[in-house]
Design a protein that fits this description.
Elements: H1 9-17, H2 27-44, E1 48-49, E2 64-65, H3 72-88, E3 90-92, E4 97-99, E5 105-106, H4 110-128, H5 131-142, H6 147-165, H7 175-184, H8 189-205, H9 211-221, H10 229-256, H11 275-280, E6 282-283, E7 289-290, H12 306-326, H13 329-334, E8 340-341, E9 347-348, H14 362-379, H15 384-397, H16 399-417, H17 421-432, H18 437-454, H19 458-476, H20 480-495, H21 502-511, H22 515-543
Antiparallel strand pairs: 1-2, 3-4, 3-5, 6-7, 8-9
Helix pairs in contact: 2-16, 3-16, 4-14, 4-15, 4-16, 5-7, 6-8, 6-10, 7-8, 8-10, 8-20, 8-21, 9-19, 9-20, 10-22, 12-14, 14-15, 16-21, 17-18, 18-19, 18-20, 18-22, 19-20, 20-22
Length: 544
């Protein structure tokens, strides 16, 4: 570690001695603990199921307790195999079981893992050309007094993409661009992580026409995707503004006084340090250590070479194509509802894509960035061995986030294979069935929060919960569009902190921000979002 000029050896020793003995475990350990706790909880939650209609949705009033499908020995085996199933386990619709040796559709997170590893390869080879370093330094110099504007623009953009088409997992690719830029502007890594996570997840929480959440829920409820959109737009404006203000407040305070930073401005801990960080940590003029990819002080005075301009063009094209290719244009512009699944099939049944839609998902996106990596190497006139070396190094740097993601998938596997989700749904049904209109709306939001922890997929959550919620809403005198809004608010609140949400846990791992530090940062905002959302729901229910 590099000491500042004013620091003495004694002060450094005292600083180290003052550190608390307990340190929050790393993201990988945290997820492993969560997985074990969920497994233990599943031992005490009775198995149960609902009868399903032709679309696979649960039918209200048909819940029944069943014998556990697994013996204790098989449950132990499931715990051991959960991380493997979280990578490439298949879900058998007939057996309702996730395993690697059955016929079914992909349930594991291998697609996301390959995607972020390809992003790591692209990061490695593009930073080797120093094109982003020089460009970031120049942009940081131009925006040195307007960092707030960049934070606001990025958060509003990600929130807009989230509210319209569920853009969230794709944000994992943008840390490569924003970490060095925000570092150059004088912000810590928590600002970068919060800017991306809060912006995108609030967009998910305040979804307006997202076909993978509102579209699926509306289809299950038998209403149009546009019904209730005015209330959802109002909520999107309110909640996005709250998120932006909270991040800007923290960013301004820590930039003015670095001692207020929750994560510090030093090099990251060993758990999240990349190979580039480990080999290239140097000292900036102010004495604080910085990662190798943070632009040096004189980078702003350098100009981009022709090769570096080509590398930047490839970078812009790759990220722009990624955004364009995953947007379900026909579903959004056509306002279509129906069965959908964002994380597995990434499509809506019965919707005919427009001619210009690419309908790409993780396999295509992974290859996009691998091809872009090779193009950057060729444009930079690297030899074959250097291109391969940089791609391998970049991909290996993402193994930490990959382990976090596979463990998060393992949690969902345990809940699915023990068939305890039906019991959780039944408990939720009992809690809200006798509430008044306003209380029902708030209770709908509350009871869906824990369910979102085990079902982070909004489409999967909607397909399970909405068939039960809509008849209860009719009984309570609450409009179905308002019930959909209450449901997505609860789902989004959980996603902001859920350790099973790869957007949060994967993003924090890439940004090298401790989960405990993030929780300290986010909990006041989470409480404020809950209060505002509940108040809006009560007002809307009373005016209906």
């Amino acid at each position: 570690m590099c000491a500042s000029p004013s620091s003495s050896p004694s002060s450094i020793t005292e600083g180290n001695a003052s550190r608390p003995g307990f340190q929050f475990p790393s993201a990988v350990t945290t997820l492993a603990i969560v997985m074990v706790l969920v497994w233990v909880a599943a031992l005490f939650i009775p198995s149960g199921r609902y009868a399903q209609d032709a679309d696979g949705s649960p039918i209200p009033g048909t819940f029944e307790r069943i014998e556990s499908p697994l013996s204790f020995g098989e449950r132990v085996e499931q715990l051991i195999l959960a991380p493997v199933n979280g990578i490439y386990g298949l879900l058998s619709p007939a057996a309702a079981l996730v395993d690697t040796e059955i016929v079914g559709r992909l349930f594991g997170q291998i697609g996301i893992i390959v995607f972020i590893m390809s992003i790591g390869a692209f990061i490695s080879i593009s930073f080797a050309t120093r094109s982003l370093e020089v460009a970031v330094a120049a942009l940081a110099n131009r925006l040195r007094n307007q960092g707030w504007l960049l934070i606001t623009a990025v958060m509003v953009l990600f929130s807009l993409l989230g509210t319209t088409m569920g853009f969230s997992v794709e944000t994992l690719g943008f840390y490569a661009l924003f970490i060095p830029l925000m570092t150059a502007l004088g912000y810590d890594r928590l600002v970068t992580a919060a800017m991306i996570i809060v912006g995108s997840v609030i967009g998910i929480m305040a979804a307006t026409v997202n076909p993978f959440s509102i579209g699926v829920a509306a289809g299950e409820a038998g209403v149009g995707i546009g019904e209730g959109i005015l209330l959802r737009v109002i909520l999107w404006v309110l909640l996005t503004a709250m998120g932006v203000v909270w991040v800007l407040r923290y960013a301004a305070r820590t930039r003015a006084d670095p001692s207020l930073s929750l994560v510090g401005f030093e090099a990251s801990s060993a758990e999240g340090t990349t190979s580039a960080d480990a080999e290239g940590t140097t000292c900036a003029d102010d004495g604080a250590s910085r990662p190798d990819h943070a632009p040096p002080p004189d980078a702003a005075n350098q100009t981009l070479s022709g090769t570096q301009k080509w590398v930047l063009a490839i970078t812009v094209l790759a990220f722009g194509l990624m955004i364009f290719s995953v947007i379900p244009w026909a579903s959004i512009l056509g306002g279509t509802t129906g069965p959908a699944n964002y994380y597995t099939t990434h499509e809506i049944a019965g919707v005919k894509p427009f001619w210009f839609e690419l309908d790409w998902w993780f396999p295509e996106l992974a290859m996009l960035f691998l091809i872009a990596s090779v193009l950057v190497g060729l444009v930079a006139r690297m030899d074959e061995q250097e291109i391969v070396r940089l791609i391998k190094a970049g991909a290996s740097d993402m193994m930490g986030p990959a382990m976090v993601i596979l463990l998060a998938g393992g949690v969902s596997v345990i809940m699915t294979n023990t068939q305890t989700l039906g019991t959780i749904l039944y408990a939720m049904e009992q809690l809200i069935m006798s509430a008044s209109a306003g209380a029902f709306a708030v209770a709908t939001m509350v009871v869906n929060i824990p369910l979102a922890f085990v079902i982070p997929s909004s489409s999967g959550h909607a397909a399970l919960a909405m068939p039960l919620l809509t008849p209860l809403a009719d009984f309570a005198g609450v409009g179905r569009p308002l019930t959909i809004t209450a449901w997505i608010l609860g789902h989004g609140l959980a996603l902001l902190v859920s350790p099973t949400n790869v957007v949060v846990i994967g993003g924090l791992a890439i940004a090298q921000v401790g989960y405990d530090k993030y929780l300290r940062f986010i909990w006041p905002l989470l409480l404020a979002l809950f209060v505002v959302s509940a108040a809006v729901l009560v007002i809307a229910a009373s005016l209906a």
